[in-house]
Amino acid sequence: MSIEQIIGSILNIYIYMIIAYVLLSWVPNARDSFIGELLGKVVEPYLSIFRKIIPPIGGMIDISPIIALIALQFAASGLASVIAFLFGG
Fold it and tell me: Burial, 28: exposed, middle or buried (Cβ in 10 Å; 0-12, 13-18, 19+)?
């Protein structure tokens, strides 16, 4: 397994964690569960960066996770390109 694949797998897992955390907000009290709190500790520091910049639409709809996922995809593809360049892959 190459370095690119390992980093790609880790980023994919993190993306799924963000999606799961966002979906938990649709279920009452789900974020208060053990899994909700665990995901919050891992995902919330990254999402809080985008929540500071992007206010909720209409005071209710938070689109910052969508922007955070797009930024993470760009970072992942950029990192993969740099690694491929450095290691000749």
Answer: exposed
Residue with structure tokens 């996770």? Answer: 65
Q: State pLDDT tens for residues 9-57.
A: 899 999 999 999 999 988 988 888 999 999 999 999 999 999 999 988 8
What are the φ and ψ backbone dihedral angles of 23, each rounded to 5 degrees?
Answer: -65, -30
Count Cβ atoms below 10 Å from residue 43 Cβ, excluding itself.
19
pTM recorded for the entire structure? 0.86
| pLDDT tens digit sequence for 68-84 | 999 999 988 888 888 88
User: CA–CA separation, 22 vs 2, rounded Å?
Assistant: 31
CA dist., res. 2 & res. 37, Å (int): 32
